[in-house]
């Protein structure tokens, strides 16, 4: 869930803790900025679907007529996510040097979480 993800990216895994350095660096990468923009665009696109919760007829819900559009959103988001992770993997500032303990302290593992 979202709360667990936020806690996993906080210093010392503290609830409401400050973001770890890796997260702060990640937020400034072009790939992550693109991913955030894409998610914002997707939210605008699917906003009409919220009405499904009050749709009280047996007729087909109008916003679901074009199911291919929704599948396209999912594919585009997956590609943007993979691109952001690849960008981080290439960034030397986000790599550990040698064995430094646990996976929790490995920057790439933190990003992939």
Description:
- There is one protein chain.
- The protein contains five helices and no strands.
- It is mostly helical.
- The N and C termini lie close together (12 Å).
How do the strands and helices of this protein lay out in sequence?
Layout: H1 2-8, H2 21-27, H3 30-46, H4 67-90, H5 107-112
Quick recap:
By secondary structure, the protein is mostly helical. It contains five helices and no strands. Helix 3 (30-46) packs antiparallel against helix 4 (67-90).
Q: H/E series, N to C?
A: HHHHH
Instruction: Please report the total strand number as a whole number.
Output: 0
Note the main sheet: none
* Rg from Cα: 18 Å
* Total DSSP helices: 5
Uncertain segments are none
Structural class category: mainly alpha
Shape: elongated
- Residue-averaged pLDDT: 76
Helix content range of the residues, please?
40-55%
SS strand fraction: under 5%
CA(first)-CA(last) distance = 12 Å
């Amino acid at each position: 869930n979202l709360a667990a993800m936020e806690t996993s990216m906080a210093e010392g895994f503290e609830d409401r803790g400050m973001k770890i350095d890796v997260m702060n660096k990640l937020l400034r990468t072009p790939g992550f900025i693109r991913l955030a923009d894409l998610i914002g665009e997707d939210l605008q696109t699917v906003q009409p679907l919220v009405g499904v919760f009050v749709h009280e007829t047996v007729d087909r819900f109008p916003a679901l007529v074009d199911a291919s559009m929704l599948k396209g959103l999912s594919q585009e988001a997956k590609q943007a996510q993979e691109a952001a992770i690849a960008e981080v993997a290439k960034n030397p500032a986000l790599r550990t040097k040698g064995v430094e303990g646990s996976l929790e302290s490995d920057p790439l593992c933190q990003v992939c979480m």
